[in-house]
Amino acid sequence: MTEANVTAAKSEAGAVPENWKPHIVALVCNWCSYAGADMAGTTRREYPANVRMMRFPCTGRMSPLMILRAFEQGADGVLVSGCHPGDCHYVQGNLVARRRFTIFRSLMDFIGVDLKRLHFAWVSAAEGHKWAKVVSEVTTSVQEAGPLPSFEHPEGWGGIDLPEMTGSGPQELDEQRLDAIRANLRKAASEVLTTERAGVVIGYGSGSLPDQTHPVLITKTAECEKLEWGQGCRNNLGAYVGSALEKHERVAVVAKTCDLGAISGLIREGQLRRDQLLVIGVQCPGVRDGSGLATKCLSCSGDPHPICDLVVTVEGVQESCEDPSAAALDTPDARDEQIAYLESLPHEERWQYWQRQFGRCLRCYACRAACPLCYCSTCITDKHRPQWVPTSIDHPGNSTWNIIRAVHLAGRCTGCDECARVCPADIRLDLINRKLSLEVERQYGKIGLDPEEKSALVDFRMEDSEEFIL
Amino acid sequence: MESSWKLTDTQLRKWLSGLLDGNSVVAPVEEDGVLLFRPIASEDQAVVKPSGKTRWSPKEFLFPRSEALYRYNFKGGTVQLEDPPVPEEHQVLFGVRSCDASGLVRLDEIFLSGTKDRLYAARRENTTVVSAACAAADVECFCTAVGYSPVGEEGSDVQLVPLGEDWMLRVLTDKGRDLVSDAGDGWTAATAKDGKRIAELEKSVAGQIERSPVNREWSQVLEEGFEHGAWDRLAQHCLGCSVCAYVCPSCSCFDMNHEANAWCGEQCRSWDACTFPLFTHHASGHNPRETKQERYRQRVLHKFAFREEDEDPFRCVGCGRCVSLCPAGLDIVNTVSAAVEAIREEGADAAR
Amino acid sequence: MSRVGVFVCHCGENIARNVKVQEVVESSRDIPGTVVTADYPYLCSAPGQQMVIDAIEEHDLDRVVVAACSPQLHEPTFRAAAAQAGLNPHLCEMANIREHCSWVHRDAEQASAKAYQTVVAAVERVKRSRPLDPIEVPVTKRALVIGAGVAGIRSALDMANAGHSVVLVERQPSIGGNMSRLSETFPTLDCSQCILTPLMVQVSRHPNIELLTYSEIEEVSGYVGNFKVRIRRKPSFVVAEDCTACGDCAEVCPQPSGNEFDMALSSRKAIYIPFPQAVPSVYTLDPDRCLNSKLDSPTGFRVLACVKCDEVCKPQCIDFDMQPEFIEREVGVIVAATGFDMKLGQQAAECGYGKHVDVMDGLEFERMLSASGPTEGEVRRPSDGKTPKDVVFIQCVGSRNPEHGVSYCSRICCMYTAKHALLLRHKVPESRAYIFYMDIRAGGKGYEEFVHRAMEEERVMYIRGRPSQIIEEEGKLKVLGVDTLSGRTVEIDADMVVLAAAMEPADHGEIAGKLRIAADTDGFFKEAHPKLRPVETLTAGIFLAGTAQAPKDIPDTVSQASAAASKGMEMLSKDFLERDPSTAHVDESACAGCFECLAVCPYGAIERKQLLDAQGEVFREVAAPNPAMCEGCGLCTVTCRGGYIDLEGYTDEQVFAQLGALGALREVIER
Fold first, then answer.
1. Which of C643, B194, C48 has its CA nearest to residue A61?
2. Fewer CB atoms < 10 Å away: N or C end of chain C?
3. Per-residue model confidence (pLDDT) at position A326
4. Predicted interface score ipTM higher than 0.85
């Protein structure tokens, strides 16, 4: 819904109205926290009346979209409460949920939401006293945070100067060496088609504007001459593999190292089998973004990854056959300083930073279209019954979209940055993705190339951290 | 009555500053490295240059990305309807490039013909367009190849023509005249010689555009070759987003959504695009444009064919944004010529 | 459009004191869809419920909201009332305005505003509820009991005696478990074997019990009423039907081994029978001890270095080629009774266990006391075989010690230590028994009296304190400790030390994992509710008995075993089981087959379903939750990024509408 229709006792230009009281929505699990709240009632423990209760079977049923809707509908604070780890009525619901909440919470903080508004607790059926205490603490905390700030363009805000991203990037490849690689690539593609190792080669062809390429799907040997290679080869061709497999049994795809994580993810998530793919890795000069190298290239060597089936370099074409479980991914880190800088600022600064960007979002979904891991037949944002992601192209709706996009990619995204490249509004989607990637890595381990490894957010350990949980 | 003046950049800025009195002024602004139209609070925020387009057109100031058509609530058990207010303050769109101004007229043809769109009409009525002709083409521009011009007057109320460091200001309509009625201090009248510079500018910019013109007869070829198999491969790498439609000055499609909660609700109109898979999806589950090739063909033909009269212009104004911003590097003009070539060579009915 | 009835309860003064019931009733009239509102002092009473029933009939209501106490208390009550009026029970919702409102908020304005908003949320929810019917699942009339100690034996016998078919699986060569190791049982000093053996024989002879010893559970799949179990019968290399248990083979077998039954205090041969009263009474060849290497290799590669047993076996029942046998059984219910082991950890080591051979644990001492044990019932020091005079018993070795052991109390040690001291005094009248204790826990019937008997009649010396050191000195064990009651240090030159070591579950996650039941942090199987459902697990159809669930003594074990059998029979006595219909559903037309839902489901309830085209070819695999196995947690619904999975009873639309109703909006605040 458009902003104007969802009004609460909101502040005008920062002033808190005199009689403002926080409005808090609590999502509680039936077996523990709901019963714990019942016990608080039975034992007549008084607590503030600002909270509204919603019963769920388990914290595992609670999604970030629900928390976001609570805020959209005017809540100033949200409390999520469930069973203590190990006590879940459904064995592991709260353990999977714990990871989800950890990542979601870190994203909300990064976006600039005051964490005084978002709380998580474990309250058991026997802990009536704890329930009362938690609600009182949360109410005080939300009172301190004040009314939920508006989702709107920060008028007159000066902006933030992020530190410059540095790195040397891949070794320079002059025209001669690029020519050699290009020739080898065309040779390799031609060979793949003539020997029928694949029915189609997905690669880059030259585009109409200077330094621009576009994906080409080559089925005839003669057309291999169309294959290009250079700093304009930006697309993650993994986005085309799925549809190519509808027409061909085996597909060859030209891949830069930054493209591989997504391809591996597609295999991990059952969208294609390893034997349906022939991956052609190529020595990469880095891709250009404007006048300089793209950020993701700054800390990359440009060397083709040994996990590829064929490896194309200046010297020639080699067969390669590596065990995927041994494959580590060299994830770029040029952004980490910018993330650290943003995190050092007060959350209000971050809120304005992101609101300004989300305000530009057109909901064109280019980010979704370019991401190989966004393969859902219908996106959550197209779901009408119910309409979790508001259709209005304004700050609240755009914020929800951008948040849920990032959440759905957490633990899966390996930073090909296509989403950020294709965004017509220059929204720093790469920063958001990298932030969550770092959080997943820090808490649960690095995302690798092995398709057999379980994705972090469908896994759990009893010992997962929970310092923020009340 | 004088209609053309020559202004220095300082004088232009002063005029712009004056416009802020009593008008909401929307001008190109740089935000996080992106040039966008935004309402400005002071003239120094505006970026007005002899050339260079904003990232997308200013159409959202006539046709907002989202707007409520009506609202209601359930106070006291009865439904109370509310018409959302139309902004009353007069709006000046300042520094609109010629292609974008033409785009607005293409939108007028949709929203103001037949049943007038009440909200669009109100905004349009309340808007004056100050366009800026172009002294140079961006690398993706091709307005002259599709029958438009860098110095075109269509859709403009006041036209600014860049003359080196200075500007020529030309009043084109009565609405435009209202904007300059209070100004004019120290403005020199433009001469005939200055007027000749306009044609020179057009020629120079046209020279920078390397595209071959799109022939008007091609509309018919495209329509006859609707079923041609070439569309299968021409749209192969389209990803089905809507960047092209949303940055386009003349795209006007929208979707309606009803969003409500227990207390209140609204019917909201938001931008939509024919390139989205669900655009023509029926409630029954049937989708007349099931494949992305069919959707892409539809968009191209809507821009370059489906013209009622022969003299009607292409709906594509040649700004080239779809070409430079397409994530998959699709080029609409190349597509058109490739399709026409295939249809002509192989016959209208040739399958893939 | 729904026709909703809203009924607000006063609950006497419980709600009405702080919530302005009349205002809530009046405001509720305006909620879209509400056609009738009413209030009543006690809605749960007979006339109260009747009012609801009458209103449903009179006003043709298709949805009901009862604003009253917690649904945890009365949801079944009002749902039953709705059913009586012909309304599907799932179309009746409760709004909790007592436990969550009137009982915890004193300000009437705030409480009433909250109550009203809670009612609105309930109305919005119930408008989107769907009529649901319980899911019927057929029941296989057979039970599986895992573990044949006294718990498993009792459970199996109860069910078999009631006429049900039972498969009883035991991993040891003989049934009987730890109880068969005991000499006498407290407090009656019954001979353990004497009371257990008749039950063991009953099991072996029972027509309804299929006894599978020396077998392990390989895999369990399915769900309540319809489990499929794969059992691996380990090769004993002796054909059981032909073995007469004559013992000739063991006589000639050259290879000795520690006798596990005697806690390694005695030895057996590689071919052996665990104890004379073993059931079944057959010999077993231990492949790890037999001189013929690689005996149970599937390729049959082995070197027959020694065939002495085969040479003397008259029935010729030794088969060196025997392979493991896999059998499958379909069962309706499962009882897990896998028992316990002694846990000998850091504290035991500190007491000298493993270092000094005269330091032993309770079970070892038990074997020593047993007439059929390594010393034929005579108490002797393991070091030199002499009869001990001074024996020190230490309680709580490893138990009640969160830092170096387990935090729980092992429950039986106080009693069996008293018993050990008593029996020692009976067998060695001149002996002196000292027991170091922290507390005495003797809560059972006759237990307190038993301990008193040890103290008063047998003059067992109870010392409240813990030993700090045990030092070997000239063949004796010097035990240094403190008596906290007198405050004095104590020094005892003991001949033997017996440790009441902690009890730990014998299963270390293998069975729990295969059954997909929860275990607590100590490894004991988790009961569904510690007070109200102690023999059930959260997985329908799987029950618990004995020390596998928590430390306990024999009376409690046997009680629990019968209770588990009773629960099992509750299901076996039906032809169909009714399951909660709050299950997950997948939109198969949209599912992309990533199966992350399958990865998170705690119950393995999501199956891979192949979609076939018109030619019968598989064109896609999609997720398909099995409604009989789904427990309705909703983990899958959030995991599915596209939102193609929904949970009946807590649908997306319901949650969405509730969130919309619970927001902070103009209308609410201005009300």
1. C643
2. N
3. 55
4. yes
